[in-house]
From TrEMBL:
Record-level GO BP terms: methylation
InterPro entries according to UniProt: Lys/N-term_MeTrsfase_sf, Methyltransf_11, SAM-dependent_MTases_sf
UniProt superkingdom: Eukaryota
GO molecular function annotation: S-adenosylmethionine-dependent methyltransferase activity
Source species of the chain: Triticum aestivum (Wheat)
Annotated protein name in UniProt: Methyltransferase type 11 domain-containing protein
Length: 722
């Protein structure tokens, strides 16, 4: 049914009670209104689901003025409860139906907060209600609240039928919210031959089953059929195929990484019940609900007959110790559970995102996240205890605290770890210099290994290090001796994602090898200097690279030179300026001023000062279409665009990958298991790529490297995305 301009203006916000009251008041009373899917089209599929169930309890949330309830009532379904938060429409519907349909019930009620006991209904019939709540500007919050309520008031074995246009954001929510413990079918609603609707309606039916069971979706949407909107239908088919792959992986026995929401939805069964020997990996926290995101493991003690000190506890593992056998291996983790004397232990692993965060802030952030993981234990009244392994930092020496107008407050510090790689003999020998960006909740931007110089080395580098050492000379000697005897080891990569960047160069190993053999230099541009660790490593590791670093903040160059031994020469230069403008201005220039067909490398390794987009690295404008097109032109006939991607939201990650796929013909990914970084490798053509002989390419690259890097191991995790 068409709406007048006044009616249309009344519904600029589908989630507003006032707007709906205004809408129904303007329409007047006495007739029904259907947004889509008229009764003749939905009658057959709906009755096939309700056949023989005339005496059951049916809920119609967000009923509006639809004729759905009266049609069902007249067919013998008497126990129907209709709810809507618009008093105007509920009053109108009562006037229309009170006498002729006396058993029909009407309630003024918010469908996201219904006042019904758990398990009150056998059927829930939603006709556009979820779609109305899922305004793109509002996000998923209201939709999730409504589906939580629907799941709560539905009986075990009950059915929830949702008539929807199945837009991607709505369908994604339905698929994820009903993944665990539900049987799901979906079918397209036939349109009238005379209908000129631009949209296809779908009926999604969810049957409430056993918690934790995952079943694939039964789809009745036929790719060969004709629908009023084929693009819409094909998008639904594609989404269902992807979802079924996810569901199949849950049934394959692999160790799945769950979200907290998955667990709340019953992915591993009833969280209130302890299951001896249960161990599940999960991610806690998400953008908008917590300061940080955490990797965690939930473990229920194997022997529940023991005497426990705690029914549930949280054990925090700092980044410096996360790779120790005791915390990294499943066998070691069970030993921690045993020693913690907890019936259930939630081990939380900190990483680079939490490096300089106050531990009390971390505990406060974690508290509401772990609350839903606490098992039911009526006798326990004490709050859940937080335990923690030592952070691994034996001693900390702050060298400099400085504030930049561009980057904000920064800290340069030397730290001595209690344990390095589990080797106790190294405790007093290895120390690290760290650069911390406070704007990103204490992000450790760079970590460099400090080594002791021989007397001759000290003399050679005295000038280079004098400014860094003189500041402390009159004070204490530092962590383990004079600062004069220490320098940064540029053959060491402190960040595992930097190692992945190096390993990914295997994709163009033959082009690099050919350039080295002919004496040509390979144009390599790095956006983002940081402490200079990556460009200094590349200069020493691959001497035939011609490296240009683009850095927006002049103070970064000063800090890198003063504290991290960064220096420039003919092979390594720094351009101070905006990285995006630099790439745009040089998009058509020839590498090294020579052959325009030569291989080029472009590395984007810069963090974001604005985390509102969900991206920690890189800033959002580095993954906009305009920059990606400039990068493609910059690479000319071939080469690699390498992006260090850090995003808390899987949707943001998918968005970035989708944009890269649209611009680049070839896309690869290296996901770091122990960290949040994902390194993406994009190329405009296959010209220089070693896609068919990656093992040989990795061996070839390793032979070129002057410093040791475990190339073969990392390349085994390389995934082709396009």
């Amino acid at each position: 049914m068409a709406t007048t301009p006044a009616l249309h203006d009344a519904l600029l916000d589908f989630t507003s009670r006032e707007n709906w009251d205004k809408f129904f008041a303007l329409r007047g009373d006495g007739d029904s209104f259907e947004w889509y899917a008229e009764w003749p089209q939905i009658k057959a599929p709906l009755l096939s689901m309700l056949l023989g169930e005339e005496g059951t309890e049916i809920l119609v949330p967000g009923c509006g003025s639809s004729s759905l309830s009266e049609q069902l009532y007249d067919l013998g379904f008497r126990r129907i409860t209709n709810v809507d938060f618009s008093r105007v429409i509920v009053a109108d519907m009562l006037r229309r139906h009170a006498r002729v349909r006396p058993q029909m019930r009407w309630r003024v009620m918010d469908m996201t907060n219904m006042q019904f006991p758990d398990g009150s209904f056998d059927f829930i019939l939603d006709k556009g209600g979820l779609d109305a709540l899922m305004e793109p500007e509002v996000g998923t919050k209201l939709g999730m609240k409504y589906l939580d309520e629907a799941e709560r008031v539905l009986k075990s074995g009950g059915k929830f039928a949702c008539f929807t246009l199945a837009e991607s954001h709505v369908l994604d929510l339905l698929l994820s919210e009903f993944r665990f413990g539900w049987d799901m079918t979906i079918q397209a609603i036939a349109s009238e031959p005379s209908s000129k609707s631009a949209f296809q309606t779908f009926m999604v039916v969810m049957v409430k089953g056993k918690m934790g069971v995952v079943r694939t979706i039964k789809s009745l949407v036929d790719q060969s059929a004709e629908y009023c909107n084929m693009q819409q239908a094909n998008a639904v088919i594609h989404a269902l195929q992807n979802e079924n792959k996810i569901r199949e992986s849950h049934n394959s026995g692999v160790d799945i990484l769950f979200s907290l929401r998955d667990l709340q939805l019953g992915a591993i069964g009833d969280l209130k019940v302890i299951v001896p020997g249960r161990r599940r990996q999960l991610i806690l926290g998400e953008q908008g609900s917590s300061l940080y995101c955490y990797k965690a493991v939930l473990m229920d003690a194997k022997n529940q007959n023991e005497t426990f000190v705690y029914h549930c506890g949280v054990f925090i593992v700092p980044k410096a110790r996360a790779q120790e056998w005791l915390f990294a291996s499943e066998e070691g983790q069970w030993l921690v559970v045993e020693s913690a004397k907890a019936a259930r232990l939630i081990m939380v692993f900190l990483d680079s995102r939490h490096a300089s965060a106050d531990i009390d802030v971390v505990k406060k952030d974690l508290s509401p996240l772990v609350m839903d993981l606490e098992p039911e234990y009526p006798e326990e009244t004490d709050p859940m205890p937080f335990m923690m392994a030592s952070d691994g930092v034996k001693q900390r020496d702050i060298l400099q605290e400085v504030t930049s107008e561009i980057t904000g407050p920064m800290v340069v510090e030397d730290v001595l770890y209690e344990n390095v790689d589990g080797d106790q003999s190294c405790m007093s020998e290895k120390m690290f210099r760290r650069l911390i960006f406070k704007r990103s909740s204490g992000l450790v931007q760079s970590e460099a290994l400090l080594i002791r110089e021989s007397p001759s080395d000290e003399t050679d580098s005295k000038t280079e290090n004098s400014s860094a050492s003189s500041k402390k000379k009159s004070q204490k000697k530092g962590l383990t001796g004079s600062k004069d005897s220490l320098r940064v080891d540029h053959s060491y990569l402190g960040s595992s994602y930097h190692s992945s960047i190096i390993c990914g160069l295997s994709l163009v190993a033959s082009a690099l090898s050919a350039a080295a053999s002919s004496g040509e230099r390979v144009s390599t541009t790095i956006v983002g200097l940081g402490a200079g660790s990556l460009p200094m490593f590349l200069r020493g590791c691959l001497p035939h690279l011609n490296i240009e670093v683009v850095e927006l903040d002049p103070m970064m160059e000063e800090v890198a030179a003063k504290y991290f031994g960064f220096s420039m020469d003919e092979q390594l230069k720094v351009h101070l300026g905006d990285g995006i403008k630099f790439i745009e201005e040089n998009a058509h220039s020839e590498p090294n001023g020579k052959d325009s067909d030569a291989v080029r490398i472009l590395i984007v390794d810069v963090d974001s000062s604005d985390l509102s987009s969900g991206l920690s690295c890189p800033p959002a404008n580095f993954v906009e279409d305009a920059f990606l097109m400039s990068a493609k032109r910059f690479l000319s006939a071939g080469g690699l665009l390498i992006i260090n991607l850090v995003a808390r939201s899987s949707a943001v990650k998918e968005m970035v990958i989708s944009r890269l796929k649209a611009v680049f013909e070839n896309l690869y990914s290296l996901q770091l298991e122990e960290d949040v970084n994902e390194v993406l490798f994009a190329s405009p053509s296959k010209r220089y790529l070693e896609i068919d002989h990656l093992d040989e390419a990795a061996t070839k690259l390793k032979a070129m490297l002057k410093f040791p890097v475990d190339v073969e191991s990392d390349m085994k995790n390389l995934q082709r995305l396009q």
